[in-house]
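Design a sequence for this backbone.
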């Protein structure tokens, strides 16, 4: 039977921080629009900021549905499953916001991700989520699966890009600046990464 929590702390925080993958779900306001689910999982790209706020890094890819939906309405659900150990599923329902590279909060937020080199994966945004509901459920039907390691394909693909070539890549993709349903997606041209001292 599911249980609700007031805060992301204790066993809830321990559980979600231990998982190697999580999923995000968003949708446009239009009832005929496209619901989107995305896997997220690069080690070090997720952080608990405080007992009601979490964040993850949004990297280069071939679309920007989550960003488009968040820009339109802010609704998001994140889900973690236990693929090993005791069965468990945790969902955080909340309001999300993409923080882009030219935002004054960028440098402070990047401090939560000390193991990530922002230049390697084509980092586009930091998604900050404020939790409204935090729930767990049994997860009895989730299969056992083992984690071997992160894939290196993403970093090897995007590490050779600079901001100019990333922008060229994004401009060629149909659903980066505009979502599948025509909503504004990633603002282009991509703002340059702030210089680090």
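Sequence:
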């Amino acid at each position: 039977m599911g249980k609700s929590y007031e805060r992301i702390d204790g066993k809830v925080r321990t559980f979600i921080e231990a998982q190697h993958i999580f999923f995000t779900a968003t949708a446009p306001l239009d009832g005929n629009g496209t619901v989107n689910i995305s896997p997220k999982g690069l080690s070090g790209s997720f952080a608990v900021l405080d007992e009601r706020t979490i964040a993850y890094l949004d990297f280069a890819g071939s679309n920007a549905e989550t960003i488009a939906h968040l820009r339109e309405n802010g609704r998001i659900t994140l889900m973690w499953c236990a693929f090993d150990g005791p069965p468990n599923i945790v969902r955080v329902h909340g309001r999300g916001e993409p923080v882009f590279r030219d935002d004054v909060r960028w440098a402070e937020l990047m401090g939560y991700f000390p193991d990530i080199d922002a230049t390697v994966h084509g980092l586009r945004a930091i998604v900050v989520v404020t939790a409204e509901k935090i729930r767990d459920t049994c997860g009895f039907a989730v299969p056992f699966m083992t984690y071997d390691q992160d894939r290196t394909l993403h970093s090897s693909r995007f590490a050779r890009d600079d901001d100019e070539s990333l922008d060229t890549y994004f401009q060629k993709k149909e659903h980066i600046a505009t979502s599948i349903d025509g909503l504004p997606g990633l603002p282009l041209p991509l703002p340059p990464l702030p210089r680090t001292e």
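Residues 126 and 137 are 28 Å apart (CA to CA).
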